[in-house]
Amino acid sequence: MIITSESIHELAPPQASFRDQNLSVKVFRARQLVFLVGVANLVIAIAMGLFAHDGMRQFSHSYLLATCFWSSVSLGALFFIAIQHLTRSGWSVVVRRIAEIFASSIMINAITFVPILVGLMLRQSSLYVWNDATLSASDELIRNKVPYLNAPFFVARTIGYFAVWIYLARRLWRESSQQDVSGDSELSLRMERLSAPTLLLSALTVTFAAIDWVLSLDPHWFSSIFGIYFFSGSMVAFLAALTLTVDVLQRRFGLLPMVQAKHRHDLGKLLFGFNCFWAYIAFSQYLLIWYANIPEETSWFQVRQSGGWGMISLVLVVGHFVLPFLGLMPRRMKENPQILVVWSVVLLMMHATDLYWLIFPTLNPTGPVFSVQPILSLLGVGGVYIAGWLWIAGQHPLLPVGDPRLIESLSGGH
Amino acid sequence: MSASNAITEKREKEHHPVAAQPALSAMIAEFPTAGSVLAAATRVSEAGWSDWDVHSPFPVHGIDSLLRIRSTKLPWFTLTAGLVGIVVAFVMQWWMNAVDYPFWISGKPFFALEAAAPIAFEMMILFAAIATIGGMILLNRLPRFSNPLFASERFLRATSDRFFIVISANDPKFDHDRVMQLFQECSATAIETCLAIDAREGRWPSLVTPIIVVAGVLALVPPALIAQKRSNPTDLPRFHVITDMDFQPKFKPQRTSRLFADGRVMRPQSAGTIARGEIQLDSRLHQGMEYGSREVAAIDRLNVLPISAQGGPSVTSNEGVQKNPMPAVPPPDPLDALPWVKEFPISVTLKTMKRGQERYNIYCSSCHGLAGDGDGLVTRRALDLEQGTWIKPTSFHAENVRNQPVGQLFHSVTNGVRKMPGYGDLIPVEDRWAILLYLRALQQSRRADLQDVPTELIPSLQDLPKE
User: Is B118 on the interface with A (CB under 8 A)?
Assistant: First the structure.
């Protein structure tokens, strides 16, 4: 198939948009369904939280897990887009619009974060111990951190992070969709120029967000690599979500036939690479603390190595690193859609497990206690997120049809 | 200019006798663009040729499948070597650290996966990288010093801006005229024949072998020298290949020099001067002795004897510390007779007490114990080793220590006592007094009774003695 710039416009829109009459009904129904399922899950989770008589502690941890999980997918997308623009990469143009939809979905994450902020402001101390006035007053270390870790400042910071991310994602989204119509190559350069500050700002905000949202659950502990740890997991989660999304669009909706084995190969390579990066960062954090062996640092890992949490740690080592490392290594595995999807699902589940391992030891220090609330929350927030995703995705073609590098991308170019 | 006109063909040179004619090696067709070479390669492939190749300045998408290039075995080299690297690294570290030279470092196990992982990671990369490069050279049958294609001037442009299809004469279907026809049908811009290279040209250049031999012999010299040195121990100082900073044009303490008349490197202080920050006018504070004692300035650090006690002249200048001969029969304890201060020459506050506690725990507790019983970790370890040279520190709660004036204790902290070294150079003078303040508190803690406790704290006491 010889592709020219003329043939793209004939070929792309019907195969790369939800605008098609049959499809738009199908997508609208899917959107309603996932939204209702999501809300139903959340309602059940809240009801369980209300009846559990633990001051909603189980529920608030589960909800934080779900929010962090879906936010990390959007944040990974923002990084991915910026990297693609900065490297002027041609191969990724066919999947870049999907990434832009994910990045724009950070708006949905902002909405789902609101309950946590409201809870904090109401002094519902079921989540962060530093928000409990009596507890933080009795603990000298927390008392000294209160100028940073206090509810109003936390809320202000979180709003600031989301403001930065939404602004960047929306600008990239707007310029990319303008290019669909105009095909102006100047817009590519403008997105490229925006990508450098995007990377810088995102790196800073994600670091602080990871420390605020997750690390401050244990305000005694500190780790300067924690932001990168969260970022590496986010990249893995996003790339897995992207691969999975492309597969679903191809199989369920018959869309994006132009994403072929060579693109999957590249996505698989990135997934493999960032998964190794996650393991590298996780081990770097562990090794230094293991070597120094200082009680105030080891206490965090002590909890996660003893009791049932030790088993979860092993599951992460094997399931998040060893098996995907071996499974994603051969080229054939990356090009085969079924196998790549299996690894994507495994890695998404492992990312959720990773966040569970980060968040829940504060709630159950002696070992994981099974509860359906984390699962219900993940599905609940996920339903809302996917519904929002579909709503954003319906606004423009699923392919950046005006991008000057699209031809290069369709031929799998590097 | 039509394609057929542009076709050039290398004709055999007339003067070559037919018998010495080199065999035909391959035929080359030149194409101007990636698209044209892709189209031509599709035709060649469809025509069923097997031994042919495409040369291009950059990878052309779609060529691999046309050429039916099998995927390379190179990744297996990389994987195997990487795994070998990991195993080698683990075994090496285990053998070195846990078997051959076990050395206990900060309570860590001799061999631990955590500590061994970074080395294993690096070794994996090292082994995998070397195996990949070596495997690539091996699989490509490199080095090759000649190729029949290099005879063609035109072919050199394969590295810059032209695309070539080469059909080898080894192909079972090879026939000069058929290939010529095929290339013409593909609208090649140029067609050349390529002759097999002379056997002599295919050999290595004549200098290569001697160079390898000489380099190999030279490479043996360092290991041979090392082996020779290792088998012949010597008393001579070590041989400085690299001097680092071992030899420097400067004086070291306690050495001699011809620069000064007295031959000493370390210069005594000039008469009548005091080093900055070392003025010690307050004898209560700095010596722990009452004012006006003539003996104060004359304490000898080594013999802890006042000079005046031996009838010598008392030293008032700063001409360095004078050494005194040991008296034949040392008096029981000459220090007891000195006018030690009995009150603290610093202000006694809670802040000083806290400071003293902190300094005590840092400097003193490792030998004397946190409670002053003379059972610090160092002491316990030394006594465990039973090496015989360690003297257990006296408990601060012993009668004689408790009764010592505070000035005398200050003297011990500053200048040392028995085997304990002096801490005067390490701890600032106010901190030494603060430590003594805390020491007094420790001593008091063993003998305190209810009257010593502030009344408001009495209700909080537990386990009060039933009287």
Answer: yes
| Partner-chain contact A329 B107, CB within 8 Å | no
pLDDT digits (tens, 9 = 90+) for B53-83: 999 998 888 888 888 888 889 999 999 999 9
What ipTM describes this predicted complex? 0.83
| Confidence tier at B303 by pLDDT (50, 70, 90) | very low
Asked if B79's CB is within 8 angstroms of A329's CB, the reply is yes
One domain, residues B196 and B303 = no
Chain B neighbors of A413, CB-CB under 8 A:
61
Same domain, yes or no, for B39 and B145?
Answer: yes
For chains A and B, CB pairs below 8 A equal: 21
Residue B114 has its nearest CB partner, among A290, A331, A412, at A290
Specify whether B16 is located in the same domain as B154. yes
What pLDDT shows up at residue A206?
Answer: 97
Measured between alpha carbons, how far is residue B244 from residues B234, B247, B348, B422 in Å? 22, 8, 52, 35
Question: Angle, nearest 10°, between helix axes B350-359 and B429-447?
Answer: 100
- Interface check for B79 against chain A (CB to CB < 8 A): the answer is yes
DSSP letter, residue B194: E
- Asked if B184 and B319 sit in the same domain, the reply is no
User: Residue for token digits 């589940």?
Assistant: A349
DSSP structure string for B22-64: PPEEEEEEEESSHHHHHHHHHHHHHTT--SEEEE-SSPPTTHH
Cα separation values, B424 from A206, B146, B363, B364, B429, Å: 52, 80, 12, 13, 7
Question: What value does the mean pLDDT of chain A take?
Answer: 91
Burial class (CB in 10 A: 0-12, 13-18, 19+), B104: exposed
pLDDT by residue (tens digit) across A170-219? 999 999 999 998 889 999 999 999 999 999 999 999 999 999 999 999 99
Provide the number of structural domains found in chain B.
2
Q: Check whether A106 has a pLDDT greater than 60.
A: yes
pTM: 0.71
Taking an 8 Å cut-off on Cβ atoms, the answer to whether A287 and B79 are in contact is no
Per-residue pLDDT band for A21 (boundaries 50, 70, 90) equals low
Domain limits at B340? 284-326+333-447
End-to-end CA distance of chain A: 18
B341 within a domain of the structure (yes/no): yes
CATH (domain of B423):
1.10.760.10
The whole-chain average pLDDT of chain B stands at: 83
Q: What DSSP element (H or E) covers B210?
A: helix B208-231
d(CA A105, CA A101): 6
- Could you tell me if residue B123 is inside a domain? yes
Q: Is residue B266 part of a domain?
A: no
Q: Examine residue B64 and state whether it is found in any structural domain, yes or no.
A: yes
Domain ranges for chain A, please list them: 5-410
Q: Does the pLDDT of residue B361 top 50, yes or no?
A: yes
* Mean pLDDT in residue range B327-355: 81
| B228 burial via Cβ count (<10 Å: 0-12, 13-18, 19+) | exposed
